[in-house]
Amino acid sequence: MKTYTSVSHLRLVGKAWEIRHQLRLMSCKAASGASEPLASFLTRTSS
């Protein structure tokens, strides 16, 4: 699976089950209190 990030976009490329799995991991991480807005996540990862 591939993840492409830029300042304002997040693109996940892969099989459907891989994308669902990654989204679940990301939502669990956000629910555990380590939540941050998508804009700040994209800014941090695209640098």
UniProtKB/TrEMBL annotation:
Lineage top rank: taxon: Bacteria
InterPro entries recorded: MciZ
Protein name (record): Z-ring formation inhibitor MciZ
